[in-house]
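The authors assume throughout that readers already know how a fold can be written as discrete tokens. The format is easy to grasp once an entry is in front of the reader. For illustration, here is how one protein appears when written out as sequence plus structure tokens:
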Amino acid sequence: METTDATPEDTLHREAAEEAQLTLTDPVRLGRVLDKPGEVHGGMGPDARLRLAARVTAIGPAAVDPATGRPFARLLATPAQTAALLGWGPPGARQARLAADTAHKRWGLPAARAAAIVEIPTEGDAAELTGTRPPCSFAPYFPLR
């Protein structure tokens, strides 16, 4: 979290906009992953990374991330595919199932089906929001202190 973020949900909204040009609504806390050795984020010490799910309401054109000076590749993937791609292991698989269940129960989205992982076009993509693609997952993470 940055000092300007009042809550983890504020961080999710900011990071999604900065890194992936996503507009989100209705974030839900799914759980956390403990990093006892503190190996993530340059060995800063033990921390917990909160996992959240949120509904994507807009996907804007790609832009440079202000923190890194580089644009990020933006992928559409199911929650399970995201957890596997990021190497989150069994805890991530459980949280992916919870994210998919949350999307179905809370937002009425269809059950996430395995499909080819595709890159969002540079100009953005309205197809994700119109239901022509399976529900996607965006998985930023950040330490809680």
